[in-house]
Structure formats: C-alpha cells, structure tokens
Amino acid sequence: MVIGGTGGVGRTICEKLVEAGTEVCFTYHNNLCRAEQIVEELSRGGARVACRPLDVRDEQAVAAFFNHVASTYAGLHTVVMATGYDIPQLHISEVSTALWRDVIEQDLNGFFHVVRHSLPLLRAEGGSYVHISSAGLLKWPEKDVLSVAPKAAIESLIQGIAKEEGKYRIRANSVLLGVIETGIFLRLREKGVFDETWCEEVLKGLALKRFGQPEDVAEAVLYLASSRASYVTGQTISVAGGYGV
Prior knowledge:
single chain; alpha/beta; five-stranded parallel beta sheet; 7 strands; globular
C-alpha cells in the first residue's frame, strides 16, 4: 500500500515494488488521470496494480479505505506513507495559524489516521510501515518548518509504533529525503523559489555532489519493506547525499 503514489517519488516506489513481485495499491488525492496512467503503465507486464482516491485528512474516508483493502486483498504487509504537499517556503515568523493547522491536519493527523486504521490489518500477519520523511530532521533547513516540524512529530510516532507493535511482528522505519530532482522540487525551481545560488549552496553542503533521484529513495523503501530488513525497526535511512554530515 503506497499512500500518495502519483508524485515522482511515489510513482517510482510503486514501480520498484511491482518489479519485486508484489501487488500494489496506491492512493491519489485529486489527479485521477495521472493515477490511471500509472496503473496502466505498471500493469503491462501482468502485475496487479490498483489505485483509489483518498484524502487522509478525512478519518471516515481512511477507515472506509482500509475496510476496502481488507475485503479485497488476502493481506497487507507494507504501508508506505509517501504523501507530499506543495507548501510554501517560509520562516517560522511568517507562518499563519491557519496555514500551520492545515499542514498539521494533512501531514501529522493524516499519518495518524492511516496508522490507526491499518494497524489491525498489519497485526494479522506482521508487516511494516515506511514513512517518507525529511533530512531536515538532521540539520535545520531554513524556511522549511512546514515540512520538518510535522515530520518530527511523525518520527516520534514511528518510534512508538516500533516499540509497542514489535510484539505483533510490525516494524516501522523512515527514509529521510534530501533534495530529490522530481515533483515539488522541480516545480519550485521553475518558479525561482530555488534559484541557482540556492542550488549551489546546498550542493556545497553535500558529501555527494549531486541531488538525489526518485530511484535512490525507492531502493531504500524497497529494502525497508522487504525481508532483508526483517530485524530493522525504529530506524531512519538518510537518502540525502550526506546532508548533515
């Protein structure tokens, strides 16, 4: 299950999971056309791929969604939280209360809704949560509070899930993203939010002198979701080119 499968990173995660031989169901918020296109592309080799609309802010919708999953599939072994939000780059002093509450509702509360209604399915046979988070948890990125602060709270929940649900053979881990050349980053670069000076300064701080690709993220997710990581829980993997080192 990939929550948020139509973005650049989400779509690549779905692709890698299909290549690994598993059934995939992903969610989308508004982009039905893109979702159907991804289903068609990933199903060409005979893989079973499906998509469903979902607004994670709506707890009743999340509950209904996982009821559908329970009645449709033989089991659920992985939930990847890969939702992304096109949020403005602002200093903390510039964030309005309304914007703050909206982001918290989408990101933090949305994650809680997904966990609350998927846990019973994962407890049946064990399974894994993989959360797509931010490398800003390692080193504060100026003007990125709306991304990093909610994910810091989610990271605490990931730790709690790992500790409390391990007895049910449930694991929980995160992938911390740096600058990935896809989706929101590309759109903001085109708008000039991330100009050449910004990119040059970020690259100076990286051990690996390049920005990441969606495939870099998907490979880390695939590892954490697989039996190769069967003794890994409550951990983070930073896919950020050495940001924070």
